[in-house]
Amino acid sequence: MKSVNLSCVLSFAVAVAAPLSFAEKAFGAEPDKQFFQSVEGKWVGPGEIVAGKYKGTKFTCNFNGTTPDGKTGMTLDGDCRVGVFTQKMSATVERKGREGYKGNFMGGSSGNGLDIIGGNVVDTQKVVFTINRNQLNGVMQARIPDDNSMTVTVAVRVNKQLVPVIGMSLKRVDTVEVGSIAPN
To answer: Where are the alpha helices (DSSP H) in 18-158?
Structure first.
């Protein structure tokens, strides 16, 4: 049971991380598109569960971010590791017209993950999404202080207050593999 719960918490963390990582600035594009375009690329970094039953659990994640053609949003695929255990992680967020942002992590609440049920891009450096799974409600906030780093905080609602439960710090990594040989 503990591994199932930890998997759900990690998928939540990844989902949080997903809509966050962003760097490429599209000249003249609206802030939402600029924010999501900056997710493109490879991201790695540590995270920690800072409250609740698994408080103190540390994990490391690797993500590849992409944006959909002709739509506003992003997909983040990768995995997170806790000790010797690795869990595949996936998150997708898209703007759905007047409904706002919708998406899912790890298959959404009908699977092992969470639903994104709303939210907005505050500016080109910050996004806030409303998340939900059954009776669990909360928010995920991602902040990108520069083109190569991102911080993510996930908070859940407990007795009408938002309590931070997960924190992550991701760095953009070079796409050139170490030891690669340039073509002649």
So the answer is: 31-37
Token pair, residue 168, equals: 């992550």
Q: How far apart are CA 47 and CA 104, in angstroms?
A: 20
The amino acid that residue 171 corresponds to is K
Q: Residue 146 is encoded by which pair of tokens? A: 């520069």
Q: Can you give the pTM of this predicted structure? A: 0.74
Which residues 6+ apart lie within 8 Å of 5 measured at CB? Answer: 53, 54
Element (H, E) at 123: strand 114-123
Per-residue pLDDT of the chain (184 residues; tens, 9 = 90+): 444 444 444 444 444 444 433 333 333 348 898 888 888 889 999 999 999 899 999 999 998 989 998 889 988 889 999 999 998 888 889 998 888 899 988 788 888 888 999 988 988 889 899 999 988 899 988 888 888 998 888 899 999 899 999 888 999 996 544 444 555 4
Pull the structure tokens for residue 102.
């919708």
